[in-house]
Design a protein that fits this description.
CATH class of the largest domain: Alpha Beta
CATH architecture of the largest domain: 2-Layer Sandwich
Number of strands: 8
Strand content: 15-25%
Largest sheet: 6 strands, mixed
Number of domains: 2
Helix content: 40-55%
CATH superfamily of the largest domain: Nucleotide cyclase, GGDEF domain
Shape: globular
CATH topology of the largest domain: Alpha-Beta Plaits
Distance between the termini: 67 Å
Length: about 240
C-alpha cells in the first residue's frame, strides 16, 4: 500500500451552494452551466486581482460542495499568503455566484488535511464542513471560533478589516473587502435590488429561506452605508 501521501497543516474552506439540490432538480443542464460559468469566471478574476505572492489554491468541487485549500510551510513562512489565497478565492467565488443568482455559505479553519487534483481528506475538512453545516446558518463564510492561528495571522496583518464580527459573536469573511471601494457600489446596488426581488417572490411559509435572505439584505445595506460614508469622508478631506 502506498503511504507516501499524508495529511499536512493547511488552511481549508468548505463551501456549499445553498439550494443546490433544488436548482439541480429544476433544470440540471441550466444549473450545471451556471455553476461552471461562475466557477471559471471566478478563477479568471482571481488571477487578475490576486497579489503576486498569492497562489491559486487547491480547489475540489463535488456537486454543490466546494473545498478551497492551501498547504502551510512547516515554519509558517507562507502562512499569510496561504490564508489570503484561500480567503480571496472564496470571496471572489462568492461574489461571482451572487452575480449569477446563487448563494454561498461556508466555514474556514486551519488543521490537518490532504488535497490534490484527485481528492480532499482529513480532520480539517470535517471541521470546515461542520462550521458550514451547523454553525454558519446564513450565507456567510464563518471563521472557526477555535482557529486561533487564523485570527492571529489576519488580525495582525494589513488584511485585518476582512474579518467581520456578526450579531451572534461569530466572525465571518467580508466579501466586500477592497481598497477600491467606489467600484463596489454599483455591484451592491444590483445585489440589493436582486435580493429584494427574491424576498418579495418568496412564499410566506418559507421562514428559513426568508431568514437567510433578510440577513444577506442587512449585510448588503450595512456595507453600502459604510462605503458611502467612507467615500464622503474622503471627499471632505
Amino acid at each position: 500500500m502506498n503511504t507516501d501521501i499524508k495529511n499536512t497543516l493547511s488552511v481549508i474552506a468548505f463551501l456549499d451552494i445553498l439550494g443546490g439540490k433544488h436548482i439541480i432538480e429544476q433544470n440540471a443542464d441550466e444549473s450545471l452551466n451556471l455553476v461552471y460559468k461562475s466557477y471559471t469566471e471566478a478563477i479568471a478574476r482571481y488571477k487578475n486581482m490576486a497579489d503576486p505572492d498569492f497562489v491559486l489554491p487547491n480547489i475540489n468541487i463535488f456537486s454543490d460542495n466546494i473545498t478551497v485549500s492551501c498547504q502551510l510551510d512547516d515554519n509558517f513562512d507562507n502562512a499569510l499568503e496561504c490564508i489570503m489565497s484561500v480567503i480571496l478565492f472564496c470571496t471572489t467565488l462568492t461574489a461571482q455566484f451572487w452575480a449569477n443568482g446563487l448563494l454561498i455559505r461556508g466555514g474556514i479553519t486551519i488543521g490537518y488535511c490532504f488535497s490534490d487534483n484527485l481528492m480532499v481528506w482529513g480532520k480539517a475538512l470535517v471541521r470546515a464542513y461542520e462550521i458550514e453545516s451547523t454553525i454558519a446558518i446564513y450565507p456567510r463564510i464563518v471563521i472557526d471560533p477555535f482557529a486561533d492561528e487564523l485570527f492571529d495571522f489576519l488580525s495582525n496583518s494589513k488584511y485585518k478589516k476582512i474579518i467581520c464580527r456578526d450579531f451572534d459573536g461569530l466572525y465571518f469573511i467580508d466579501v466586500f473587502f477592497s481598497p477600491q471601494v467606489s467600484s463596489i457600489l454599483p455591484f451592491l446596488e444590483f445585489l440589493i435590488d436582486d435580493n429584494t426581488r427574491r424576498i418579495n417572490d418568496l412564499d410566506d411559509k418559507n421562514l428559513k429561506e426568508r431568514q437567510k435572505l433578510k440577513w444577506l439584505q442587512n449585510y448588503y445595506y450595512e456595507k453600502y452605508d459604510d462605503i458611502k460614508k467612507s467615500l464622503n469622508n474622503q471627499q471632505a478631506l
